[in-house]
Amino acid sequence: MSIRGKAYIAGAWEHPTRKAPDKSLAQLHAEMAKGALDDAGLSFDDVDGYLCAGDAPGMGSIGMAEYMGLNLRYIDNTETGGSSYVVHVGHAAAAIAAGKCDVALITLAGKPRSAGIARNRNPARGGGGETPEASFEGIYGPSTANMYGMAAMRHMHEFGTTSEQLAWIKVAASHHAQHNEHALLPNVVTVEEVLESPIISDPLHRLDCCVITDGGGGLVVVRPEIAKQLERPPVKILGHGEAPKHLNGGRVDLTYSGAVYSGPIAFEEAGVKPSDMDYASIYDSFTITVLETLEDLGFCEKGQGGRFVADGNLISGQGSLPFNTDGGGLCNNHPANRGGMTKVIEAVRQLRGQAHPAVQVPNCRLALAHGTGGSLGTRMGSSTLIMEAEA
Amino acid sequence: MSETPKVPTPRVNPETKPFWDATQEGKFLIKHCNACSEHYWYPRTMCPLCHSTDTTWRQSSGRGKIYSYSVMRRAPVPYAMAFVTLEEGITVMTNIVDCDLDSIAIDQPVRVIFRQSEDGAAVPYFTPA
Fold first, then answer.
1. Does the ipTM exceed 0.90?
2. N or C: which end of chain B has fewer CB within 10 A?
3. Which residues from chain B sit within 8 angstroms of residue A292, using beta carbons?
4. What residue spans define the domains of chain B?
5. What mean pLDDT comes out for the span B92-106?
6. What's the CATH code of the domain at A314?
7. What mean pLDDT is predicted for residues A162-186?
8. Chain A residues whose beta carbon lies within 8 Å of the beta carbon of residue B9
9. For residue A186, is it within any domain?
10. B32-69 core/surface letters (b: 16 or more CB in 10 A; e: else)
């Protein structure tokens, strides 16, 4: 069984806030739900499936079903970090294809900016609780930045990738963010400005890192019959893949991500190939995340990512692969430190022809959204989603 | 020279107690699978490569080379995160200590040392060989 053409994305909404200290977490989730349902032209009473991840309070879908007054026959709390919401779209489509629900709602919300996480410069040692690796990793002070830093260092060592090449990824995102009135960092930056920003953890500069923002978003996935009754341009789900990548018993290779597993599954189900994509939302927690993912998804050969992204090749209207035209996590929004939701939302905008005119890909028919949750330096959950604009 | 960070106390559970008992004697143990004859890391009862529970502890030489590293420059006290590939072929997470942080390089030979935590645990780190 395949999900190809069995479900559609009918609603997609990104909250405009980037800092929300005066709202509760559950309140924000409900705002995401309302925004996505309004976008679809549906109501809370239409929802019979609900998916959320570890950012939701308490027991996730259970508590949020109570808060929002949802009557559900399908629930899913799958937690794969920032890729969760890309996974959720695949799971919602599978549930719809199997007749388990008709209208599936997905929400993400969080407030790390209000919590001051951006100012925390001293990772806790000994963290990890009861995880089996805690005493062999957490005691050494792994942080998000230094783990992705190690991946970048190894990629540079093996393939000659440079900081200048990585900087081009930020430059491209900033070119897109200048057109997004909600972007946290709306200014265009140059390669030199990226390289002159302070090193956070070798070799990653401050401008190689994504923003830290409050906010979130919502998605609504529906049966084809429902999608065709709604006013929004229908976005068909063609294929989905998900997989973990981990340290494999100590056989460590930091030069690739879980996209090497999730990508081929999604492309096969969709019946398309990387070169068919008109647009790609690529998870961009750091510049190195984008570079490895592009290689792993087959947009270029392994080790050629640096050359692929250089000289503006990811800039819409200029390069061969327009990416993250909302400004991405690098410049626009990385709500709750989880970028998968906004990756799907911008892909939907592109397929609807409703991205900002300055970055809209002409006749955008096929788009990909990819999420990377967890850490490029240890273990991650990867998910790839391929969508089509129905003529 | 790098400053010495405070040595944290590892969480010890029944599955990993032999490892932490051995570090008290200056030994770095790794797990070996009798079924598939492979070493693996981090230590656990079941071999993640062939799923056998016929596994034993072996003493590592404690020598290896740096697979990758990253100096955390923005920490109040900068420190070097690293993965070290041991002579036995498995790669472990660690800090590189007792050296100039700017002298660290991929493929650099390193050896294990142990430091005492406040609670008396012996925690392994690596330093240039």
1. yes
2. N
3. none
4. 17-128
5. 97
6. 3.40.47.10
7. 98
8. 126
9. no
10. bbeeeebbbbbbbeebbbeeeeebeeeebebbbbbbbb
